[in-house]
Design goal:
- α2 packs across α4 (89-99).
- This protein folds into 2 domains: 1-110 and 259-358, Isopropylmalate Dehydrogenase (3-Layer(aba) Sandwich); 130-256, Isopropylmalate Dehydrogenase, CATH 3.40.718.10.
- Helices cover 40% and strands 22% of the residues.
- By secondary structure, it is of the alpha/beta class.
- The chain is globular.
- The protein is built from 12 helices and 14 strands.
- The longest helix has 17 residues, at 166-182.
- A 10-stranded mixed beta sheet has the order 2-1-3-12-11-4-5-10-8-9, with helices on both faces. The protein has a two-stranded antiparallel ribbon with strand order 6-7.
- Bound molecules: nicotinamide-adenine-dinucleotide.
- Nicotinamide-adenine-dinucleotide is lined by residues 14, 18, 74-77, 90, 93, 261-262, 277, 280-286, 292-293, 296, 331, 333.
- The site of nicotinamide-adenine-dinucleotide has 23 residues, from α4.
């Protein structure tokens, strides 16, 4: 048995509801793979602000740094919207990401079973699609200097800087290739090398890194074309690696082919400690009503097992249990004719039951 320390930060709104179900799944599957878990829970976001006056107390940050992986629910809500920017719930999340040096964000877009009908795209276009977007998370135009708004020649001018160093590109490209190696060995690097010099360098460095991964078929695509191709024929993609801003936009576009926010997990990796969280927010409109879909959070546990503990098999089992559960049961966000409507707690229980079959 190996022991792993997991920090759970449930956060706000539906965060605690979906976290509870995900922890049960984690506790059920871990012993099957020889994992003993030490699970600690700490506040983050609005809940932490209410308790301590900061969205990321030192105690939570330290616990994150002392853990092997972090599982985060969601943060934010109307109650905290009027707060100063510096203590908004979202700052807690950003601080955790930067302190843990999480420079790679992994966003899978997969269609689970007959959820294909929940997509706004035609079933034949999305059925079987399985795309992983690897987004650079700590550099690029969102962080580049100089930035700001100033008066020039009598008018206001807003400016940001798109900057990538060779080492930043190299490390994210490496993650892209490594992920592709564990999938169908096809990597599409997305840039805008025809107009942006910084992404011309991106293309060059990604190509150089590719020399170390001869088994991976590397291709390059401009970001505008990638946006079109995701909608036109998502099945052509396996793994995509791209900059912070292009990844922000393209991962949302790719995710939407799956139909619901309640189904989307994510992983942020790079440093020694990975952080796993659903893509959705705290959904204040349904919080406290046992209506939340816990599957994005449960699938995030699967990503933790795969990427932090190298237990891809455990991730596969969780996915199979999710697909089986969806055959019969649905939460409101993915409800369809002929299915049985259930709440968050029952959905968690049904996944636990389904896990027994795999
Ligand atoms: P949201 O993702 O919370 O909700 C958008 C819509 O999707 C809502 O109608 C909600 O009910 C539904 N939804 C989301 N997750 C669901 C689930 N698991 N099951 C069923 N339905 C689900 O986005 P929002 O309403 O724009 O934001 C609400 C709050 O969450 C804001 O304070 C925002 O800043 C915050 N937020 C946090 C994160 C995060 O913690 N990573 C991400 C996005 C938004």
């Amino acid at each position: 048995m190996s022991t792993k320390k997991i920090l759970v930060t449930p956060g706000d709104g539906i965060g605690p509801e979906v976290s509870e179900q995900a922890i049960q799944v984690l506790n059920t599957i871990a012993p099957r793979f020889g994992l003993q878990l030490e699970i600690t829970e700490k506040p983050v976001g609005g809940a932490a602000y209410d308790l301590t006056g900061t969205p990321i107390p030192d105690e939570t940050l330290q616990a994150a740094k002392n853990s092997d992986a972090v599982l985060l629910g969601a943060v934010g809500g109307p109650k905290w919207e009027a707060l100063d920017f510096s203590v908004r719930p979202e700052r807690g999340l950003l601080k955790l990401r930067s302190e843990l040096e999480l420079y790679a964000n992994l966003r899978p877009a997969v269609i689970y079973g007959d959820l294909v009908n929940a997509s706004t795209l035609k079933a034949e276009v999305v059925a079987g699609a399985d795309l992983m977007v690897v987004r650079e998370l700590t550099g690029g135009i969102y962080f580049g200097e100089p930035r700001g708004v100033e008066v020039r020649n009598g008018e206001r001018v807003g400016f940001n800087t798109l900057v990538y160093s060779e080492s930043e590109i190299r490390r994210i490209a490496k993650v892209g290739f490594e992920i592709a190696m564990k999938r169908a060995k096809k990597l599409t690097s997305v840039d805008k090398a025809n107009v942006l010099e910084s992404t011309e360098l991106w293309r060059e460095v990604v190509t150089e890194v590719g020399v170390d991964f001869p088994e991976v078929e590397l291709s390059h695509m401009y970001a505008d074309n990638a946006a079109m191709q995701i909608i036109r024929n998502p099945k052509q993609f396996d793994t995509m690696v791209t900059t912070n801003m292009f990844g922000d936009i393209l991962s949302d576009a790719a995710a939407m082919m799956t139909g619901s926010l309640g189904m989307l997990p994510s992983a942020s990796i790079g440093g020694n400690i990975g952080m796993y969280e659903p893509v959705h927010g705290s959904a204040p409109d349904i919080s406290g009503q046992d209506k939340a879909n816990p599957l994005a959070m449960i699938l995030s546990v699967g990503m933790m097992l795969r990427y932090s503990f190298d237990l891809g098999e455990a991730d596969e089992i969780i996915k199979q249990a999710v697909v089986k559960t969806l055959d019969t049961y649905r939460t409101g966000d993915v409800m369809a004719e002929g299915k049985t409507l259930i709440g968050c707690i029952e959905m968690g229980e049904k996944v636990l039951e389904a896990l027994e079959d795999f």
